[in-house]
Amino acid sequence: MNKFSKNWLFLALAIGLGIVAFYLSNKVISNRMQQIEAELKASRETVRVVVASRALSPGDILSNETASVREFPREFLHDSALAPEDFSKIEGEALLVGVRAGEPILPVYTVTRGGAFFSGSIKEGRRALTIEVDELSSIAGLVRPGDRIDLIMSAKPRDQGGAMGGAPQESFTFPLFSSVEVLATGKAQRGSGGNIESYSTVTLNVTPQQANDIIAAKAEAKVTAVLRSQKDDFPNTSQATSVSDVVAAAARLKRLNTTEYIVGGRGANGGASIVTSVPVTSAVELPGATPQSLSAAPFPTLSAIK
What we know:
By secondary structure, the protein is an alpha+beta fold. It has helices at about 5-45, 135-140, 210-220, 245-255, 290-295, 300-305; strands spanning about 45-50, 65-75, 125-130, 150-155, 170-185, 190, 200-205, 220-225, 240, 260-265, 275-280. About 25% of the residues lie in helices and about 25% in strands. The longest helix has about 40 residues, at about 5-45. The termini are far apart.
């Protein structure tokens, strides 16, 4: 082998050794970095906290759509950061300050926990109206802050002279407003927690015109709050109803649920002369009766009726 061939062999060998050394050094460094990260992770405890799921602005309402959960190193967290199980304490409240996406949401960022006035939870262009409610709607805490209610109005129509008096007139009951948000019940605001107690007032989130209409209705009529499902977003389209309408409907239902039959052998001359009206009863409601047994029951013949 000549000198030229030996030089090429040494060069190739040197390149090969360099590649092996580069691979081994990278592997050693990578393993060391993974070891350091594992040690740091083991020494740094992380906790799950409530954070903003997107950039939030002052006045935004905290909900499952605006908040999420993320792990943070405990040593970098504020002492008042909220755990997921404590989110109900601020759920439904309005923010006083903006929060960046991924930033922990602190109670001091909200209206009630930050010590601000209740007016801070009212968005621009809205009004908070406190009204008395019917006892049936408020007792035992059936309506809670954050719920939505229908306002049902009962009033007598005015006579031609424009007065509420005059000839006796029936009261009509009809929906005034649908799906009105409840901001507070009594002195309890949404997210304030505490025991459920009965109350006689609710504070509603309304427009200025709705506030005028409700106040006018309360002045000369009765307004009752009716709780609706949180999943029900459809307006209340019920028609105006009076007591006469209810009685007439009940009478029609009674007529539909009765039948007439002839009882023979009880008339003045022993003939069939009595017509009796009784409620229709389904076969399954009769003890021991089945549809088959009822259909097989004998009916009186013409000769028997005579």
